[in-house]
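Lab meeting minutes (informal)
Scribe: AK
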Amino acid sequence: MKYNLKFLLLSVSVFITSIAASVDTVLAQSVTQIDRSSQWNIQNQSNYNLIARRNRKKEINAFFRSDYDYWDARVLADYWGQSIDDSKARIGRKIMAGGRAVAILEQFLVDARVQALVSVSSSLNRNRNPHKFYTESKYDYDDAVDLAKFWGDRTPLDAKLRIERNLIMGNDEIIEEALRFARQ
């Protein structure tokens, strides 16, 4: 009976060991499958990021090759609630799509300009700084003084407001031309 008990214990021990080895094998295969799945996901995400960066670069290049400028992207960025770089890419994407997308872009730009002009007027009425585009521009107080005299505005503050509105409307070349004449 002693030998039977030893044999039984030995058999149970071998059985448990084989089950443990099987569990280890299954777990190792599962981990390997998870690792492969993770590697595939990482590779797929990496490829997606590479394609996205290439597409974004194409979109930004399309923007820079177009007739749209920084101020168009700036006004649309406010309108769309995104960064200026994202706005440039979105403009480029619409240009690349062509046709209908460009027509929609043009309407967005009109709407964005109207919204920006309204916000300038409402900022004046609420005693807020209405010159956020002016402050981001290259123009300074001396430019506002020169332009106020040239345009016949009462104060440089009025000229700043006019500069702001011209920037919103995408008329920065009008400001440049006026400055050239004002300084002659």
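Next up, CB showed the second protein from the same session:
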Amino acid sequence: MLKSVGHGPGRFANIRTVTDETERQPPAPTDLKSVRFVELSNTAMTALLDDDLARASAEAGVALTEYSLTDKAKWVWRYRINQLASDPGSAGWLTEAVVAEPEGVVVGYAGFHGPPDEAGMVEVGYSVDPAYRRQGYARTMLTELVHRSAAEAAVRTVRVTISPENAASLATISGFGFVEVGEQWDEEDGLELIFEVPA
């Protein structure tokens, strides 16, 4: 899983330096799946932490899946609940459920780590349910997040962090123009490479 993610007014990300401006563009829409993002309220995330999938689904208005109850997903919900409590202004910028259309099935979750910081940077994250991997959903989620970032005047840079051993995620971001700018140690995921692209 990549770092976790959300969006709203501006809701809603390795190793390649691009020199050709055409390579900075996300894939053409015809290459992408059709998805929509559904905001998860504090109530819905709390229900997921309580293993109450029915209540969480009713609150979200979509049928959330067992993938929302995994340890990794629960870490995200717990973190986001705490984030909203300490910074209510981050609402609309956090992790959301991603629904494939027209099927109406939840294929994962994605969003931002929070609103843009003082330098105009947002970090994105996304995670695809194993049942829907290798079908283009991760690339679609990333494309949506990059497009949303570009539409926000306050956003100047989009960041994504990925484990150097996560070949699938590194492949997902290729062609988006991300440049490796450093590395960091994450308490949850260990060593991560940091990639950024201008919004």
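CB comment: The CA atoms of residues 120 and 156 lie 5 Å apart.
No objections, moving on.
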